[in-house]
Amino acid sequence: MLLELHDVHVHYGKVEALKGISLGVDHGEIVTLIGANGAGKTTTLKTISGLRPVTSGTVSFEGQDLAGVPAHELVALGIAQAPEGRGIFPGMSVMENLEMGAYRRGGAKAAFARNLARVLELFPRLRERRSQPGGTLSGGEQQMLAIGRALMTEPRVLLLDEPSMGLAPKLVAQIFAIVEEINRQGTTILLVEQNAAQALRRAQRAYVLETGRVVRDAPAAQLLDDESVKAAYLGGDVGT
Q: pLDDT tens-digit profile of 171-183?
């Protein structure tokens, strides 16, 4: 496995948010985490990113135990996250936000140019807005910028937290099409998404979280057709 969590427990003070999570993401996959609000999905991503300490259990990347590795060093290893709420720098221009994503590359101008070209090809709107402050972009454009900034690190695994949140249906379809293209280009993706139907249609495998525990894991297509999953997370609607 490229990325693996084994029996991971995480606390916020005395509250146990993750209660023995175990999951894996292999090279080239899209894997999705689905579940209700408060199930532990975002905490799982923050734990992988080094933003929440592990109480017990292990998080490993290509067999390397990540315990104690600072978040910025995880980026250097090849783990990047586009966070829930986008987290762009509103007072900086689009270009400055993308440059912030590339900080670990330092003076590697060729890598910067290659990654910038990739991002602007995936998101032509960002090219048009490159001098515009990030805070003046639409919600969909800000989501594009958040994903683009993460891609500037040239990640091996991209953690996406609620990329469709607050977007109009047309933009949701556009964002998910871009997620699939990023994966086709070779980036492994771990996706957290409230729009479970969209996520399951794009992923190869899925984990269902409930109150900090994995209660199901299966091929995504199998969960998409599962009546109990439809009732709990899809509202009975799995149409395109």
A: 899 999 999 999 9
